[in-house]
Amino acid sequence: MQEQYRTVARAGVHEAEISRSRFLCALAPAATEREAQDFVAHVRKEHPTASHHCFAYVIGADASVQKASDDGEPGGTAGVPMLQMLMRREVRYTVAVVTRYYGGVKLGAGGLIRAYGGVVGEALDAVGTITRQRFRLVTVTVDHQRAGKLENDLRATGRAVREVRYAEAVTIEVGLPEADVEPFRAWLADTTAGTAGFETGGEAYGDA
């Protein structure tokens, strides 16, 4: 698994005018290919009179799914440069749709490539990106007496508390960088005088 990846901070739209054509780049986070396709369909519906709706998306922290469409523009002049911009910026779990309203001036293949790739880059700058870090999930079990202080200590030391469950004992799920698992185990034993349970689990991504 990738140690970290970048994704868009939020959904957003950036507009540019190039040789009288309007280019609107809509960006959105997409956890699955279905979400990406739904977003493309949503943008098409919003702009039914546009000349083209070209798109590109990258799904997976390791970019395992990559798709691009020129939607009627000359082959390789729209979707591919859009995809290349997402990959160059190391952006994952993201869909980009560029809606073009043709302004009557032909841009030529080079001009189209620059326009479609460029507007995605500008949109990424405008919307902003966030970094997601890979974490090892660990579950800490502690008695009710120590739980409140331990949770406060965890948050005070900047550790990612993901979930707290109260039952006979209190379980706290924490996300840790892999390198921090053993130092954390020692810190926990020291902090709770060896009374806390500790169990490692799977992996997940969280804000870096």
TrEMBL record:
Pfam families (UniProt xref): DUF1949, Impact_N
Domain UPF0029: 140-194
Coiled coil region boundaries: none
SUPFAM superfamilies with a match to the protein in the record: EF-G C-terminal domain-like (SSF54980), Ribosomal protein S5 domain 2-like (SSF54211)
Segments passing through the bilayer: none
Domain Impact N-terminal: 20-124
NCBIfam families xrefs: IMPACT_YIGZ
UniProt family annotation: Belongs to the IMPACT family.
The protein, known as: YigZ family protein
Species whose genome carries this gene: Streptomyces chryseus
UniProt lineage: Bacteria, Bacillati, Actinomycetota, Actinomycetes, Kitasatosporales
